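Lab manual, section 2.4: Encoding a predicted structure.

Procedure: take the sequence of the chain (298 residues), apply the prediction step described in section 2.3, and record the output as structure tokens. A sample record is shown.
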Amino acid sequence: MNITYRQLRVFLALVDTGSVSAAARTVHVTQPTASMQLKEISDAVGLPIYEVVARKVHLTQIGKELAITARTMANQWAVFEQQVDGLKGLTRGRLKVAVVSTAKYFIPRILGSFCAKYPEIEISLEVLNRDGVVKRLEENLDDLYIMSRPPLNLDIEDEIFMSNPLLLVAPKSHAISKKKNIDITALKSENFIFREKGSGTRMATDEHFKKLKLKPNVRLELGSNEAIKQAVIGGLGLAVLSKYSLGENRDQEEVAILKCKDFPIVSSWHIVTPKGKKLSPIAAIFKKHLSDQAKGWC
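Recorded output:
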């Protein structure tokens, strides 16, 4: 089977963009050239690798297998290039990181200090909900994945690098915000605003309330921490939020952290990679940088 690396790059661009024209732009060739190279791959394989239905590209089963193989080859080649640069005394290349949405409150600053040390490194940061990050993890699209609840059904390597306390919050105007040593039973009549099901915060919150044998009255489910904070400020209910989503100037906000003996919920931030994945030199340096910087955030 005779397939060139250049052809595989076009194919991976097709997988990433979902269209031949966008793939052509990504690898800087004309659309006819991209179409021809994709046809040559199919001819070499002897089976169709994709089909177009309603103007949308769908990989065939063999196309999906080829995408996994091509991605592995591309990742290994990137590692090799970085190793060569390292021997030349150079630190450059690309770092791809996918994080859950709550991590956006601290990861950009950690990335900023990393880029200050290594300005020639190109950074790609994907901020998604937990399901989106897990999907990218399954497809091995990035160097590192950062989340608070790693999936249990995947074969992964998992390292805790920072705590992630989940706090119980209320509007500052709420009478309960002035109380101390609040008993969890005092919250039975309160409304709650929770993150959407499937998020790491929601999973930890559900488990915690189940352990406390309290069924909260969930008034709203929202998909962003900002929306939840505004709903709390608006008096719609109490909420459970990551310490990092509240920002550094909590006293200036209209949100109070409740002094409840059953909170905060103990949680952690994890660095996750597929089992057996060989980190590129840059990814390994960034992983250490994450752990070093986390000491100042805890």
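Check your result against the sample. The longest strand covers residues 93-100.
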